[in-house]
Amino acid sequence: MAVLFLLFLLTVSVVSADEDGFIGVNIGTALSDMPSPTQVVALLKAQNIRHVRLYDADRALLLALANTGIRVTVSVPNDQILGIGQSNATAANWVARNVIAHVPATNITAIAIGSEILTTIPNAAPVLVSALKFIHSALVASNLDGQIKVSTPHSSSIILDSFPPSQAFFNRSWDPVMVPLLKFLQSTGSYFMLNAYPYYDYMQSNGVIPLDYALFRPLPPDKEAVDANTLLHYTNVFDAIVDAAYFAMSYLNFTNVPIFVTESGWPSKGDSSEPDATLENANTYNSNLIRHVLNNTGTPKHPKIAVSTYIYELYNEDLRPGALSEKNWGLFDADGMPVYTLHLTGAGTVLANDTTNQTFCVAKEGADPKMLQAALDWACGPGKVDCSYLLQGQPCYEPDNVVAHSTYAFNAYFQKMAKSPGTCDFKGHGSCIFPGSAGRNGTLPNTTSLAPSSNSTTSGCHSVYIYGAGSFTTSVIIGVLLMSVFFL
């Protein structure tokens, strides 16, 4: 099983939390092969992800999320802030169309008004609080204000002099916005949304911040950062960023607005100027972040006050502009394959994409080769599986037989469809195998790898079962369970 997820002076800290911390994911859509809403929801269910944040209020995705129980934060896109912030009627129409039309079937629990407005479109800052108030008024009119909170995500860059955290304060040029904003959050019982990226703090520190400190790796006591004003010890950058925001709010005399981290993560790939954007570092950061949040350890300023966090992000977004790293923050590729296998062990419920909780689709033993070929042709054609790895001279060409090739294609389709029921049937010629399950003779099928490793080289397909970038040898899979599932 996989496991699984932030703070003026200690004596005046009165922030409280009503529930344990949770881990959610952001769902961006800048993909050239964006999965369908049904496929997205199937992946969320397979990974037991119960909290998501959308960057808009996509109708198709909200409909697909209906009756799943998944808690959804919808967003007013930045380009709509000016209109909504200047018109109560426009705000009411937005809520009617994007919220009221979907609840209660879709469990919308928050509305994020834009994203990093103060630093990305400062010309909209004067109407930001009005936008929050108008959206909230529409919720009140529909008796939804009790279940749906309204806030706006901020970049941590609006916090100045952020270390030590006790010296932190918001950029004072934003006080005319920040003070009424915090009053609104306080009066409505909402939370301060913060985008916290230790990766960027590390990159911009020019070596001052140790990599281990950014990645939540254990530090010896003499290496921990100490706030000389409070004597609080900081073992990781994430907690320091969150506490800086808490102290900045305290500076403005707000001590009871909790923080939700709406974005945090680490890129798994970068160009030559970003040598620490690697699979292993992304894996380490997100695995440790999940563990940190779900342990409800809070931060040094507010221990035991959980900091619920949304990981940025669900999918790698190949269409995002900018540096290579901008395209590689995802936990999954568009086909539903994990970009890496999270280091999550023990008991848990969220993000079960490790090697102890996997199912694969293989060609059924004794299947008619002609029928297998027909199913293979379908998977590589209408099924839209990338079968280029099966071409002569490519990594998965050998062994060159229909059983091995169809196993590859069947499993690629099965994983692409997030293991949805019926997607490993192929007219009765596909079967599921489960790690740790025994087959008829307690043996493994004699097939090629089930998918190419995302970090494989020209040396060819490995003779192991591979799930995304994480792999495990055949010794881990001790048997095969064949099962027929209904017609595709």
Question: What this model shows, in words?
Answer:
With 488 residues, this protein is α/β, with parallel strands linked by helices. 28% of the residues lie in helices and 13% in strands. It has 13 helices and 17 strands. The strands form 5 sheets. The chain has a 9-stranded parallel beta sheet with strand order 5-4-3-2-1-13-12-9-6. Strands 7-8 form a two-stranded antiparallel ribbon. α4 packs across α6 (128-141), α6 runs parallel beside α7 (175-188) and α12 (369-380) crosses α13 (402-416). The protein is globular. The two termini are 28 Å apart.
For the sheet with most strands, the description reads: 9 strands, parallel
- Percent of sequence in beta strands: 5-15%
Ends: how far apart? 28 Å
- The CATH architecture of the largest domain can be given as Alpha-Beta Barrel
CATH superfamily of the largest domain: Glycosidases
Count of folded domains? 2
Helix and strand string, N-terminal first? EHEHEHHEHHEEEEHEHHEEHEHEEHHEEE
For this structure, what is the CATH class of the largest domain?
Alpha Beta
Q: What would you call the structural class? A: alpha/beta
Give the C-alpha Rg. 24 Å
Coarse shape: globular
Contiguous uncertain segments of 5+ residues: 1-18, 431-488
Mean pLDDT metric? 81
User: Which sequence of strands runs across the widest sheet?
Assistant: 5-4-3-2-1-13-12-9-6
Number of helices: 13
